[in-house]
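forwarding from the other thread:

> can someone predict this with adenosine-5'-triphosphate?

sure thing
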Amino acid sequence: METLEAMQEEVNAAGANVRALKAEGASPEAIAAAIDALKKTKLTLESELATLKEAGNAEAKAKEEFRSKLSGVLEGRLFYIPSFKIYGGVAGLYDYGPPGCAVKANVQAFWRQHFVLEESMLEVECPAVTPEPVLRASGHVEKFTDLMVNDVQTKECYRADHLLEEKIEELLRDPMLKADRRRELEDLQARIDELKVEEMSVALKDTNTKAPVTNNDLSEPYPFNLMFPTQIGPSGAVKGFLRPETAQGIFVNFRDLLYFNGGKLPFAAAQIGQSFRNEIAPRAGLLRVREFTQAEIEHFVHPDHKEHPRFAEVANIQLNLFSQEAQLAAVKKPFLMTVGDAVSKGIIANETLGYFIARCHLFLMAIGIDSARLRFRQHLKHEMAHYAADCWDAEIQCSYGWIECVGLADRSAFDLNAHSEKSKVDLVAYERFDTPIQEEVLVMTPNKQILGKAFKKDAKPITEALQALGEAEAFALQEACAANSSAALKTDAGEFQVSADMFKVEKVTKTLNGRNYTPSVIEPSFGIGRIMYCMFEHAFYIRPDDEQKTVLKLTPVVAPIKTTIFPLVNDDKLNDIANQMNKTLTSNGISAKLDTTAVSIGKRYARTDELGVPFAVTVDHRSTTDGTVTVRERDSCDQVRVPMTEVAELLGRLCKMTATWAEATASYEKQATADD
Ligand SMILES: Nc1ncnc2c1ncn2[C@@H]1O[C@H](COP(=O)(O)OP(=O)(O)OP(=O)(O)O)[C@@H](O)[C@H]1O
């Protein structure tokens, strides 16, 4: 199939041909034939567009239906629900109900296991209420903004970039769009995130972007800070904010954490906690909310040694990479490559960043993200902060498109430098040289006796100012004193005239055994809610044999309950065994739910399938005679007969995912399924 662009060019060429023939006074027959050809090319293009539109509409409708079925299950089963529902709810705030809480706790526990425990990270928990100076130092007070516009009539608020993006999409769908204009708009689309206020204003006007629904004019765009301001204490004197990310709590504790770690680098600290962003347009359920759980890691490393000691363990893992180069190519496509190759070819900046990208991939696989719908997209140059060495987002495809769920960035020394500068506390590490080095250093020696006599109480700030001089300034002062007998020195207490006898400045060779340096930070930042929503989408399906049977194929690691236990019929003997089974399993750490309702076994299975419970144990009459029960696996509906004494061990292995169902049950008697 020809591309739309090629078709458009054919239409343009046919149009140009008609104009040329008219200009050169060609015969009416020739002109009529050219007009005919133009009409034909236009028709082909229009029919192609109609087909695409239809396919697009059908796809959008299918996605809508899928989402409505899924949210029916998720909200109906209380995985999550809009907060404060009885008061009408508030956009961007959600409650997790019982199964949602259980899944979230499991995702977090697994995250802790996979990262904090396996990597010996230092976990911290810091308050969400954060004093203003901390967030001013980090740049959030000044820069944590989105550009906002209002409908001039209704005053409704919108994110300017969202409206512009939608408008550009609409304009790009126009088949008659000139090639130059198309390129211009595509270029603008790629730069939307970086547009400054004035550029956004121009872009909105240039594209004639209006308010949705009302089609009213929009206000000029203006920055809106996403942080929730608050005051700490009753006087209102101490300003603060609810933190927009958990990371800052780790940076400000760097010195103590380094000490705790015996002064050794590299090390990583981690935190799981709530973050708050007053999003202008919260949407798409859990994907963009105003309060959410983040799990963040700050890995501190020497800026010249970003190798990772465990890199070899992950080097062969294949990642779906969407590098800068791939995004800028004519055909934009991610590619598969091992993380080892990506680092050695310089696609990923260093081993430590590569290591965390690979570990993130393993984490997402283990909780049930479909590998075909996961990619790591590198930030384009203009998306990256000036200090960042390299950034990648783990993007998961769901019905809303590709969604950033984890940000992985090499932030160099930016954060520690920023807090050092503002707090006046050195956030540095010390490195001992393998062999000491000789270095010429400046030594400034103020003559305290003469200074004391001459300046009395001002001698102290003068001494400090002399000691703070850099090499060039110190020698310049010395020269000025020699030439004019005295020279001016600026201090915190004002300006003073100092003379050559008041200080001595010289360069001496010193042996240095080490030095202080500011470590770089590599930061993987996970949004738990976004990951969970994508995980739910990937887990959701309808059994092919029955439209009514919806299933969440949550992996055992994250499933809210690991097994249900059913007595086949309501019978005292069977109930006793089921109760006993329940006790054994829960005391072995396997969460179980006893279901003694009298409904059919098929219905009971369907109920637990919808909750994502991976296994079911059924107690039947045979259990009373030979001490066995059946164990069923949710997705295959396979059942095996297992001695009751072995069920805890079997489910333990399956839930830890150290064995597959086929491996773990190979030796057990298979049994016909009883789903109906
Ligand atoms: N409003 C939100 N709702 C839910 N999760 C969020 C929200 N904002 C950020 N996150 C999660 O926190 C992670 C790290 O935050 P980060 O600051 O990198 O996001 P971001 O780049 O600002 O996200 P976006 O551009 O989508 O607003 C994101 O990858 C995402 O999973």
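Residues 245, 277, 279, 288-289, 292, 294, 404-407, 525, 527, 529-530 surround adenosine-5'-triphosphate (CB under 6 Å). thats all i got for now
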